[in-house]
Amino acid sequence: MRLQTDARVILTVFCSVLFCGSAHAVSFTIPESVLLGTEFNTKAWGPATVVRQNVPGDAVQFSFTGLGGSGTGLKDNYAVLPSYGQVLPSHGNGDFSNFDGYSLWVKNLDDASVWMSLFINTGYTGDSGNPANTWQNDTFWQSSWSEIPAGQSVPLHLDFGNAIPWNIADNPSPHTQGANGVAKAINNYDRTQVSAIGFETVQLNGNTDARILVSPTPIPDQTSTLVLLGSALAGAGLVRQLRRDRKAVVH
After folding, report:
1. pTM of this structure
2. 3-class SS shares of the chain: helix, strand, coil, % to 5
3. Whose CA is closest to 25, among 111, 103, 137?
4. Contact 146, 225 (CB under 8 A)
5. What pLDDT, in 10s, does the model give residues 169-214?
6. What angle do CA 249, 250, 251 make, to 5 degrees?
7. What single-letter DSSP state applies at residue 37?
8. Tell me, which fold does domain 11-241 have in CATH?
9. Which of 83, 155, 167, 236 has the fewest Cβ atoms within 10 Å of its own Cβ atom?
């Protein structure tokens, strides 16, 4: 059934240790109405031109032109919309402490592979930050890069208990401590301060165009979970190659 409003909560339960590390982990996802809304009308960074359109079902098609090895990201920026089942009321709608992760389904409509990852930003950097008015509070968290073979669909998942951080090395307390590029758990404090949510796409095979379906619900396909497992392992080294600083929006 097509989603009718941003206010509807979508809870995606992945009952597989492969994605969540627990048979009962609960993830939030991005509704179709948000993917088509104003928050996703402008890309966050990267060289590609992005056009999006509605398609039958709960999916949105993203057509990329001019993709490159540096990646192109799209995000729902601060204040993230109150449509993911956050703990409310919360400052900026950014309290995701009731979730174990973030998930989306994607399908590659192109004739060449494409790589994708999910990400969030945590840590408020404005007057309400702790400490106040410092970029050091900001951390960019991403999933492992996954290869999406031509014509196949896979679930992507960012596990809050094992996410890959950037901009973390200078984090002050009470923000999560750690080393850039070394996966770890997002602490309970930072899970209450999510300032951006999105996904990133990159082409590494010389084909600079791609067409991707993105959906909060499974996209019919014959993809095996073994395909996703293999691509996730292969993508571990890609994270370091594509690392860059991400900045959360000041508020």
Report:
1. 0.80
2. 15, 30, 55
3. 103
4. no
5. 999 999 999 999 999 999 999 999 999 999 999 877 777 889 999 9
6. 115
7. S
8. Jelly Rolls (2.60.120)
9. 236
